[in-house]
């Protein structure tokens, strides 16, 4: 039986991953910020076969509470076989430009809190010498864009920090998976124009579940073809890229 910690458990992608673990009878600690949403996810996963040993309320703006989250989860589950860090916030960048403090707050939600969670996890996983951590970053972290300036900057930080943690934990036999979705049809993207490139949270979750359970790869583009799209995007000269509004 897998012991699974999901941070951001109410996210559409995380809930779909949670359902796949629930179907296998996993024991879970679920972390979310909105009590009524988290309670609904707990009930849903329990009816699908999970044992939810504990649910924790945590707001990523209180990133300094991250060690508490990890300590509570470890106490509740004993060992952590699987950790998924899934919370995130995609603000409308045009509303943030006049408010420096809101840009910084979004950075804390999307990046500082993830760095704090991973930092608190490192000694736990070093001691266990086993386990897998999946961190949902984004293709948006690969290149700064006007419409997603702070979100992209935060995801770039998450991707880089996660790679550092992967290197650190590798000798301890702990896997760290960086997950880079493209557009996924979730509440986060409800305000964006629909594109044919959009994936369903269920399809993305199946791929994440497989990567968590199979021991490869280190970096997961999902759907896979975003790896090719981003290879092209990275090649565009900045003089061209700064003119593109995507
Ligand atoms: N959707 C996409 O196209 C896409 C693409 C690339 C990467 N991602 C990443 O995928 C992950 C999951 O997102 P999603 O698409 O499943 O979106 P979602 O359904 O809107 O979920 C967002 C999650 O983040 C939580 N959250 C937001 N602000 C928070 C805060 N201050 N403190 C704690 N939790 C907070 C939300 O909690 P509440 O439910 O309480 O609001 C919710 O659980 C995120 O890391 C996102 O950046 C998404």
General description of the model:
The chain is of the alpha/beta class and 246 residues long. It has one domain (3-241): NAD(P)-binding Rossmann-like Domain (Rossmann fold, 3-Layer(aba) Sandwich). Helices cover 48% and strands 15% of the residues. It has helices spanning 12-23, 35-47, 66-77, 93-96, 100-128, 149-169, 201-214, 226-235, 238-241; strands spanning 3-7, 27-32, 51-57, 82-85, 132-136, 175-181, 219-222. The chain has a seven-stranded parallel sheet with strand order 3-2-1-4-5-6-7, sandwiched between helices. Helix 1 (12-23) crosses helix 7 (201-214). The longest helix has 29 residues, at 100-128. The chain starts with a strand and ends in a 5-residue tail after the last helix. The structure holds NADP nicotinamide-adenine-dinucleotide phosphate.
Brief overview:
This protein has helices at residues 12-23, 35-47, 66-77, 93-96, 100-128, 149-169, 201-214, 226-235, 238-241, and strands at residues 3-7, 27-32, 51-57, 82-85, 132-136, 175-181, 219-222. The chain is an alpha/beta fold. Helix 2 (35-47) links the parallel strand 2 (27-32) and strand 3.
């Amino acid at each position: 039986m897998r012991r699974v910690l999901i941070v951001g458990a109410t996210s559409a992608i995380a809930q779909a991953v949670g359902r796949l673990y629930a179907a296998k009878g996993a024991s879970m600690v679920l972390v979310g910020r909105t009590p009524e949403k988290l309670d609904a996810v707990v009930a849903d996963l329990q009816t699908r076969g999970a044992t939810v040993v504990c649910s924790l309320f945590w707001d990523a703006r209180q990133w300094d509470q991250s060690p508490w989250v990890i300590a509570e989860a470890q106490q509740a589950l004993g060992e952590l076989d699987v950790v998924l860090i899934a919370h995130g916030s995609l603000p409308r960048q045009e509303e943030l430009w006049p408010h420096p403090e809101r840009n910084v707050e979004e950075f804390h939600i999307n990046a500082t809190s993830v760095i704090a969670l991973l930092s608190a996890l490192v000694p736990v996983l070093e001691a266990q010498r086993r386990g897998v951590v999946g961190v949902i970053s984004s293709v948006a972290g690969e290149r700064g864009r006007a419409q997603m300036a702070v979100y992209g900057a935060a995801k770039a930080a998450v991707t880089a920090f996660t790679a550092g943690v992967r290197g650190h934990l590798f000798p301890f036999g702990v896997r760290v998976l960086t997950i880079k979705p493209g557009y996924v049809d979730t509440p986060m993207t409800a305000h964006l124009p629909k594109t044919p490139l959009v994936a369903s949270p269920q399809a993305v979750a199946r791929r994440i579940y497989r990567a968590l359970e199979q021991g490869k790869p280190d970096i997961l583009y999902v759907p896979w073809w975003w790896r090719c799209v981003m290879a092209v995007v990275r090649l565009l000269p900045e003089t061209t890229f700064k003119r593109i509004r995507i």
